[in-house]
Design a protein that fits this description.
This protein has 455 residues and is an alpha/beta fold. The protein folds into three domains: 23-127, Alpha-helical ferredoxin (Fumarate Reductase Iron-sulfur Protein, Chain B, domain 2, Orthogonal Bundle), CATH 1.10.1060.10; 142-235 and 376-454, FAD/NAD(P)-binding domain (3-Layer(bba) Sandwich), CATH 3.50.50.60; 250-371, FAD/NAD(P)-binding domain, CATH 3.50.50.60. The protein contains 16 helices and 15 strands. The strands form four sheets. It has a five-stranded parallel β-sheet, with helices on both faces. Helix 8 links the parallel strand 1 and strand 2. Helix 8 packs parallel to helix 16 (422-454). The protein is globular and about 75 Å long. The two termini are 35 Å apart.
């Protein structure tokens, strides 16, 4: 096994960006963590564990914090979720584990599970301890994983723990996918994402970066490896399809977030319109505020009751000073060389409930526009030669194993579910890793059985 690469040393986050994007939920100190851990009822058949897509044994890891066994707590978390640190920071715990806490039934504050999980993981890293797992005995098998996001990382960890070589191919300069490039810094820092990459590097996961896999290369990888995992994520954010979209000052939410995390973007235009009302749109609006925008407006064609962003994200944006325009749609973008305004048209409900243009029509003065209206799929090259079955651009899989219609191919994450949470991608990758290992073992058994029969 080659020496692990230390990706954390390559972090480009500047002190200025770190200061503008401090933790939304700062970590516990020891006293606060122990006090919070002792509030837990340590439920048998705990609903919080059931609500976690990776099924972390929440009462167990919390009890270990209460007893001072932080290494044991971290191991419990990592045993179920190798990306336990990023999930502790980026997961919408309010609607997952924390939302399922039994203390809700007694009108009491739920246990702060996410912050306790982060405390255990931060303590592990602060101690300088290595990953509490080692690779399994070498099986001689290898898997190519396309895309370096959470699904591929979780799959690779399961493979390495079973002695299967895992090689990740990613188009970016750093691994981690959206964990590294697409999640707001105040939720998940770039350093925290790269720290997890370093941990996986200790397991012997190999990364091939700045490498775009096309149909021809995929054929080569299929021939060179015993199985292939597709963790492609999603593609570019959709365009509006209106005039003026090519003007300077128009960007998209993912490029904005990746830009300030990488240091390429250090400021914002004064007046910004964010088109969309999902969680990523909220992150982009908040980022614009923190980068210096004096007026940030989110524009959405429906009302607040239809927005896909979580309620707590909506409340956070209002606290940041973001304002909202409901039931309006962009008609065109005004400007000569750069953005000067966003032409809007009001919408109203028709008799059948659909939205139709109303008479109100005006231009919102803006200097920048951020698009956040959903992402396209990124799977066109897979249709070449019918590698795997696709439905509306998404890879079709068996949810129990992650296997596609081509038995040598497995998949997970956003390319299969259309874009959910980090923890859902981790759960997909974990299942696929176990599914690949089981399939390879079955293939070996068949081959060995055939050899014995021939003898």
């Amino acid at each position: 096994m080659s020496e692990p690469t230390h990706y954390l040393q390559q972090s480009p986050v500047s002190p200025e960006i770190a200061a503008r994007f401090p933790d939304l939920h700062p970590g516990f100190d020891k006293q606060a963590a122990v006090a919070e851990a002792n509030r837990c009822l340590y439920c048998f058949d705990a609903p919080c564990t059931g609500a976690c897509p990776t099924h972390i044994d929440v009462p167990r890891f919390i009890k270990k914090i209460a007893s001072g066994n932080l290494a044991g707590s971290a191991r419990t978390i990592l045993d179920a979720n190798i990306l336990g640190e990023s999930c502790s920071r980026a997961c919408p715990v309010e609607v997952l584990c924390q939302g399922a806490c039994v203390l809700h039934r007694y009108n009491k504050k739920p246990i702060e599970i996410g912050r306790l999980q982060r405390y255990a993981m931060d303590s592990l890293h602060a101690s300088g301890a290595v990953l509490p797992f080692t690779p399994g005995a070498d099986t001689g098998k290898s898997v190519a994983l396309i895309g370096g996001g959470p699904a591929s990382l979780a799959c690779a960890a399961e493979l390495r723990r079973r002695g299967i070589r895992a090689e990740i191919y990613d188009a970016r300069a750093l691994p981690g996918g959206l964990n590294t490039y697409g999640i707001a810094e105040y939720k998940l820092t770039l350093d925290a994402s790269l720290r997890e990459i370093d941990m996986l590097s200790q397991l012997g996961v190999q990364f091939h970066l700045n490498t775009t896999v096309d149909a021809a290369m995929l054929t080569e990888l299929e021939a060179a490896h015993d199985a292939v995992f597709l963790g492609l994520g999603l593609g570019a954010i959709h365009k509006l399809g209106v005039t003026g979209e090519a003007l300077d000052g128009v960007t998209n939410a993912l490029d904005l977030i990746a830009g300030y995390k990488s240091g390429a973007i250090t400021s914002s235009p004064a007046r910004v319109a964010v088109i969309g009302a999902g969680n990523t749109a909220i992150d982009a609006a908040n980022a614009s505020v923190r980068l210096g925008a004096t007026e940030v407006t989110m524009v959405y064609r429906r009302g607040p009751e239809q927005m896909s962003a979580f309620d707590f994200e909506y409340e956070h944006a209002k606290q940041e000073g973001v304002r909202f325009l409901w039931h309006v749609q962009p008609v065109s973008i005004k400007g000569r060389k750069a953005v000067e305004g966003l032409e809007l048209q009001a919408l109203e409900a028709s008799a059948d409930g659909s939205l139709v243009p109303a008479d109100a029509h005006w231009t919102l003065p803006v200097d920048g526009i951020v698009l956040a209206i959903g992402q396209a799929t990124h799977s066109d090259f897979l249709s070449t030669g019918s590698t795997v079955q696709l439905e509306r651009g998404r890879v079709v899989i068996d949810r129990a194993s992650g296997q596609t219609t081509n038995p040598k191919y497995f998949a997970g994450g956003d390319c299969t579910n259309g874009g959910r949470e980090v923890v859902d991608a981790v759960a997909d990758g974990k299942r696929a890793g176990m599914g690949i290992a089981a399939w390879l073992a079955a293939q070996s058994a068949v081959q060995n059985g055939g050899s014995h029969a021939d003898a």
